[in-house]
Amino acid sequence: MNMHDLSERLFKILSHPNFLSMKGLANEVPIFIQTYEPAHEDALRRMVESLAIRLQNHGITLKSLDLFELVLEELEEHKILTGLLAEETTWQRSDVLETLQNYSDPKTHMIPRLIRAIEGDVAQLTLITGPGRIYPFLRTHTILESLQPAMLRHPVVIFFPGEYAQDPTGGSHLRLFGSIPSPRINNPYYRATNLDHYRL
After folding, report:
1. What's residue 134's pLDDT?
2. Is there a domain that residue 52 lies in?
3. Over the stretch 76-101, which tens digit does the pLDDT of each residue have?
4. 23 pLDDT exceeds 90?
């Protein structure tokens, strides 16, 4: 599916009253994953920006968040970012990775920041990009598992560069860039809905 067709399909789904009201989700959390080819990263980002504007012009209040930008905000808030950028060339790669992992820890840093960003203002929808940009110091399955306990009051769509599959036994698999597998997510309440197969 090209980006124009994907944008049209997503606009139809995301602007639909049943989707925005989370009708038919039963006990499942309102988290959705839209996969795309990793090679289309730049086109996807442009498409999401355009889609967000179109949805807003349609009267829908939404938030657009980038996970990498949230990590940078966290580093900046703790006065780490400037020093990290200035001294990165003198650091061992493992030290840089450890610093990024520490300040993007889901429980103590990233998920609280993400939830504040999602719920800070009244919104009907949140669009999240950037899972590929935060690998390997933060992985999407960790975000999903950490987000589940939060009482999300509106749909959250995560754009994922890779594959997302659910098996008949209730588990889920994320495969970043189509080749890097995440651990199997077994708890059915930790599953996100795959928008590739979503029907209104």
Report:
1. 79
2. yes
3. 876 776 666 666 666 666 766 676 76
4. no
Parent domain of 127 = 3-67+112-197
60 HSE (CA, 13 A, CB side): 25
Share of the chain above pLDDT 90, in %: 32
CATH code of the domain in which 131 resides: 3.40.50
Residue 157 covered by a domain: yes
Question: Which uninterrupted H or E stretch holds 175?
Answer: strand 172-176
Distance CA 84, CA 101 (A): 13
Structural domain contains residue 117: yes
pLDDT at 114 over 60: yes
Burial of 175 (0-12, 13-18, 19+ CB in 10 A): middle
**20 within a domain of the structure (yes/no):** yes
C-alpha–C-alpha distance, residues 186 and 169, integer Å? 9
Is the confidence at residue 186, as pLDDT, over 60? no
User: Distances from the Cα of 158 to the Cαs of 9, 75, 76, 155, 195, in angstroms?
Assistant: 16, 22, 24, 10, 10
